[in-house]
């Protein structure tokens, strides 16, 4: 039954090409493979309990209604600009920097605490796709790294992973905006380069470097970033065409891209089918991706 469901949710534009890519990744071996994934609406579900699932940014209640309202006002102003067809990329990039910068400023000014992150995540309408744990386990067993790229907030994504998966994975790294807290647990600043929706993909692998240095519990070698760059085969997961750019910092040999098309399916399916090797529609679980990953890692020909 699971199989029929899977088949109806999976769309492949060029099955022969996909076969070929699976074969060459399989032949190169798992030590050449890495997974690059977007977070919101890719690892998490688009619909949760009948309403739109929250994003890592959207779920945050900073325990200060005045500042929550201010951030909402920014959202109402900038969000339509982000998708405006009449604003050029350069201007839009400037607007996004402005938006993210102001939002981060409000979080600091409004006295965000780590405790309110924990509480926001506990209360949030956010949920991982079914099978995310199994996918991460499958990859962890084979020492295949997973890089999660997000223009959201790394600390929130980590809290979501911790509290909703009830498990930590040593192969999973987050490349996103990272907060700095003082000893009393108050946010004082942000670390590193600002990552917004329009620059999240350029040099994302290079941006991964300071994040790696930050997470002190790494068992891997200190040149983790280099070793990630040596993994020249990629399984990429995203829910926007723009997510395809996540592998831009990498000189990859073979890339299999998976797109989750969560809404507006009729209008977007042909575009997604052309852009991604595999498209999953209807807010699909991860079982199809796990199947794909096991084909890529199979020792049989
Ligand atoms: Mg997304």
Automatic annotation (TrEMBL):
<dbReference type="GO" id="GO:0009117">
    <property type="term" value="P:nucleotide metabolic process"/>
</dbReference>
<dbReference type="InterPro" id="IPR036412">
    <property type="entry name" value="HAD-like_sf"/>
</dbReference>
<keyword id="KW-0460">Magnesium</keyword>
<dbReference type="GO" id="GO:0000287">
    <property type="term" value="F:magnesium ion binding"/>
</dbReference>
<keyword id="KW-0479">Metal-binding</keyword>
<dbReference type="GO" id="GO:0000166">
    <property type="term" value="F:nucleotide binding"/>
</dbReference>
<dbReference type="GO" id="GO:0005737">
    <property type="term" value="C:cytoplasm"/>
</dbReference>
<dbReference type="Pfam" id="PF05822">
    <property type="entry name" value="UMPH-1"/>
</dbReference>
<keyword id="KW-0546">Nucleotide metabolism</keyword>
<protein>
    <recommendedName>
        <fullName>5'-nucleotidase</fullName>
        <ecNumber>3.1.3.5</ecNumber>
    </recommendedName>
</protein>
<comment type="similarity">
    <text>Belongs to the pyrimidine 5'-nucleotidase family.</text>
</comment>
<dbReference type="InterPro" id="IPR006434">
    <property type="entry name" value="Pyrimidine_nucleotidase_eu"/>
</dbReference>
<dbReference type="InterPro" id="IPR023214">
    <property type="entry name" value="HAD_sf"/>
</dbReference>
<keyword id="KW-0547">Nucleotide-binding</keyword>
<keyword id="KW-0378">Hydrolase</keyword>
<dbReference type="GO" id="GO:0008253">
    <property type="term" value="F:5'-nucleotidase activity"/>
</dbReference>
């Amino acid at each position: 039954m699971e199989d029929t469901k899977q088949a109806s949710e999976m769309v492949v534009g060029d099955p022969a090409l996909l076969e070929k890519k699976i074969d060459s990744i399989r032949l190169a071996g798992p030590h050449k493979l890495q997974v690059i994934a977007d977070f919101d609406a890719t690892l998490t579900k688009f619909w949760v309990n009948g309403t739109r699932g929250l994003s890592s940014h959207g779920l945050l209640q900073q325990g200060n209604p005045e500042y929550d309202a201010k951030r909402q006002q920014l959202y109402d102003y900038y969000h339509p600009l982000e998708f405006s067809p009449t604003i050029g990329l350069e201007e839009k990039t400037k607007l996004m920097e402005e938006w993210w910068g102001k939002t981060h400023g409000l979080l600091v000014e409004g006295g965000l605490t780590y405790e309110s992150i924990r509480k926001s995540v506990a209360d949030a309408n956010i949920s991982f796709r079914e099978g995310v744990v199994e996918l991460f386990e499958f990859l962890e067993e084979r020492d295949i790294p997973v890089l999660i790229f997000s223009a959201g907030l790394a600390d929130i994504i980590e809290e979501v992973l911790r509290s909703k998966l009830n498990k930590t994975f040593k192969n999973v790294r987050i490349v996103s905006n990272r907060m700095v807290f003082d000893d009393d647990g108050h946010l004082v600043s942000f670390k590193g380069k600002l990552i917004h929706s329009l620059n999240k993909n350029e040099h994302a692998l290079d941006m991964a470097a300071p994040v790696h240095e930050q997470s002190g519990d790494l068992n891997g070698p200190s040149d983790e970033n280099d070793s990630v760059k040596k993994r020249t085969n990629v399984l990429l997961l995203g829910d926007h065409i723009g997510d395809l750019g996540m592998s831009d910092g990498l000189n990859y040999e073979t890339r299999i891209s998976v797109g989750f098309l969560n809404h507006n399916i009729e209008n977007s399916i042909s575009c997604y089918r052309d852009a991604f090797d595999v498209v999953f529609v209807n807010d699909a679980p991860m079982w199809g991706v796990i199947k794909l990953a096991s084909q890529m890692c199979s020792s049989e020909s």
